[in-house]
Structures are given as structure tokens and as C-alpha cells.
Design a protein that fits this description.
Length: about 400
């Protein structure tokens, strides 16, 4: 009989972890949390490197940092036509200044050359990763999957991935808990990552463990993944390191090993799964779920029709392993969904900037989810409006016209 992996510690829920000396201002909670991701030090670094880049390229004026807002055309924000609304940003920054910042924005020191192309988003990327891990203890059940930072231009580093809402762009491997990006790594189509390669694991398996090992010790974690990542060797290795794992597998054959369970599940089509944390026999291995009758186009419709009859929905027992996978696997997709509602990305002709916008979105979403856990934010849009207001309210001095 297969023995599921037993954690040393109990499963737990997610928990925000604010700095000890951090003072949360209730009226400006959104900005207070966001400022931990985009700290004053990070902003000053961006200002300095942007000004250096602008000076090298003979910009007419100095530059500063600016918020990023989504609109069909940037110039529409500054139009004084009565058909257009008035935006507070126009009271603190001219259109020319905004366009200068957008044109010369630079995160890294352009005077220092690096062989690593992703250095263009340093030191911000390292700060976002580190602070995301410091401020949040993820729940025990996480998902690991690919994310895409949209970019349709020409770059040797981009990927094209089928069945993704954004099929082309920069690929980012992310470990998420209900939309919160706990840690991630940028991947390149032509550059090898500098991670440690694990014996008996392929490159993909080593990348998975590179993220998983960043989870805090003395806590129980289960990692859910799809068949792109799953393998017997990876699951065995994760089990040896104290992590549970469950996911789909791209083999339609049964494989028997002592510490990884492989089984075939008939859904709308046959699906093979691997797990180290579930059983498929015994009364506690199944759970009753209210299922909707499959559509007629389903490849398995004829077989399931005998189960449903004329009923649209029916309570059917399914394996706990399958139910857990369906419930926990989409935690990266939640991050993509939140990102898609109010993406900050602008049309721009520098190939690294989509990664900056992805980092900005990640900081905003992680900030929102922390505030939601602290019960100081409920609605996503309201959080964004509050953040925008707090970002610009200290700069509401009317512009002086220049001649």
C-alpha cells in the first residue's frame, strides 16, 4: 500500500507579516503597504538612473518618477476639452514631463555593462522578490506555473506559449498563493539560468526546486503543478526535501514506485496524475461534489450520460486528490486574472520595459492581497483608486506656466 507523505508540521493558512517598526496608517493603508514594495530608496535609485540615462541622451529637462495610468492615449489625460474628465495627475505633472519620464525611464545604471540581460530591471526585481517573501507567509497549498509578461515585439528572450491569455512575451516561473506572487524567476529562450542543477532532475525540475526551496522552513507546504513540470524524479526529490507535491502527468500509463503514487482519472478525457500526499483507496480518499453535466461536445459525454441521465447537476464522489488539484492549481491564474483587470502596461519601444510593468503590477496586486488579509481592503478597484490618490495627494501644487 502507498503511504502518503506526512508533514512534520500542521497545515496552515496564509498570514501577512508586517515589519516590527512599521506603522500602518489606516487612511492611507494602500499606500503604506505599497511603499514597502516601491520604497523611497527604490524610487530614488530609479530617479538617479533615469536622470543619468537622460543626461547621456541630451534630454532637455530633468526627469522624475511618475505613476502609470491606463488610458487609450496618454495625451488624453491632459486634454482640457469638456468631453474629457479632469485627472489629478495633470495638476502635478505636465504632459511633456510625463513623456520625458516615459522615454528615459531607466532602473539600472546604464554606465555599467552586464552580460545578464535581465540586469536591466535590477535592483528593483531583487527588491520585489525579497520583500514579497518577507511580508507574507503563504498558505500550505501553493501552485507553481508559468506566467507571461506581454510583449509582441522582437526579442530573443521571449516565448510563445499556447493556451495562455497572453500567448507571447517574457516567461516568468512563479510560485503563488491565491494570486500572491511569493517568488518568481525570469526565463530566457537563449540564456541559461544561473540556478543550481540538481542531479537526476532536468532543467525544468531544477527551476521548480529553485523556487520551492525559498519557502520558509518549519512549515508544511504542498506544491501543485501541471504536466509541464511533473515527473517521478521531481516528486521523489521534493518528498525527500520535506515538500508534498501533486499534479497532472503527461503519461497515460501506470508507474508503481514506493514514494510517488500514479493513477489514471477519467474526467472529460483520461488524465494521469502524480501525488505524494494523497491516497486513492479507502473511504477518506473520496469526497462528494456537485458536478455539472458535461456538454455534448465532450469526448466522454456518452459514457457520462448514463451517470447523469436527464439531470443537469448531480452529486458524484470524486478523489480528494483530484478535488485538491482542481482547487489549488489555479492560484497562479488568480494573479493573472487580477493583473488583467487593471494592467499598467503602456505601449513602449524598449524591450525590457514590459518586465518593469509586470513588476509594478506584481507590487500592486501583492499589496492589495496583504491589505485584504488585514481586512483593510475589500474591493480591488477601490484599492487602486485609493493608491492613486495617496500617491499624488502630496504633490497637488498647481503647475506654474512657463513661457
Amino acid at each position: 500500500d502507498f503511504l502518503p507523505f506526512q508533514h512534520k508540521y500542521s497545515l496552515h493558512e496564509a498570514l501577512p507579516i508586517l515589519p516590527k517598526k512599521f506603522i500602518l496608517i489606516q487612511k492611507s493603508a494602500s499606500y503604506s503597504i505599497f511603499s514597502l514594495f516601491f520604497s523611497e530608496h527604490q524610487l530614488q535609485t530609479i530617479v538617479m538612473n533615469t536622470n543619468i540615462y537622460a543626461a547621456i541622451h541630451n534630454a532637455k529637462h530633468g526627469t522624475n518618477q511618475a505613476g502609470v495610468f491606463k488610458f487609450p492615449a496618454i495625451t488624453d489625460y491632459w486634454k482640457k476639452d469638456s468631453n474629457y474628465p479632469s485627472h489629478d495627475i495633470t495638476k502635478t505633472m505636465s504632459l511633456f514631463r510625463f513623456q520625458q519620464i516615459k522615454h528615459f525611464l531607466h532602473l539600472s545604471d546604464c554606465t555599467k555593462l552586464s552580460s545578464n540581460w535581465f540586469e536591466k530591471v535590477e535592483p528593483l526585481v531583487s527588491h520585489i522578490k525579497n520583500i514579497s517573501k518577507q511580508l507574507y507567509l503563504p498558505a500550505s497549498n501553493l501552485s507553481l506555473d508559468k506566467m507571461i509578461a506581454r510583449f509582441s515585439g522582437h526579442s530573443a528572450h521571449t516565448f510563445r506559449i499556447k493556451n495562455k491569455p497572453t500567448p507571447k512575451g517574457y516567461k516568468i516561473l512563479s510560485l503563488c498563493d491565491s494570486g500572491y506572487a511569493y517568488t518568481f524567476m525570469f526565463l530566457s529562450r537563449i540564456m541559461l539560468s544561473s540556478i543550481e542543477l540538481i542531479p537526476n532532475l532536468n532543467k525544468t525540475g531544477s527551476e521548480v526546486y529553485h523556487l520551492v526551496k525559498q519557502l520558509p522552513q518549519e512549515y508544511a507546504f504542498n506544491i501543485y503543478m501541471d504536466n509541464f513540470f511533473s515527473s517521478i524524479n521531481l516528486y521523489q526529490f521534493l518528498r525527500e526535501k520535506g515538500f508534498g507535491a501533486c499534479g497532472t502527468w503527461d503519461h497515460l500509463i501506470g508507474v508503481v514506485v514506493d514514494d510517488v503514487l500514479s493513477f489514471l482519472w477519467i474526467d472529460n478525457s483520461p488524465v494521469t496524475m502524480l501525488t505524494t500526499i494523497h491516497k486513492i483507496d479507502g473511504q477518506d480518499s473520496k469526497i462528494k461534489k456537485n458536478h455539472r453535466k458535461p456538454y455534448e461536445a465532450s469526448t466522454n459525454y456518452k459514457n457520462i450520460r448514463s451517470v447523469f441521465g436527464d439531470e443537469v447537476r448531480k452529486v458524484i464522489p470524486i478523489l480528494v486528490a483530484v478535488d485538491d488539484y482542481n482547487h489549488y492549481m489555479g492560484r497562479v491564474d488568480i494573479a493573472d486574472q487580477l493583473r488583467s483587470y487593471y494592467s499598467t502596461q503602456l505601449t513602449i519601444f524598449r524591450v525590457w520595459v514590459p518586465l518593469f510593468f509586470w513588476l509594478l503590477d506584481t507590487a500592486i496586486i501583492n499589496s492589495y492581497l496583504i491589505c485584504k488579509k488585514l481586512n483593510i481592503a475589500e474591493e480591488h478597484k477601490a484599492f487602486r483608486f485609493a493608491l492613486i490618490r495617496d500617491l499624488i495627494k502630496d504633490s497637488l501644487n498647481p503647475l506654474k506656466r512657463t513661457t
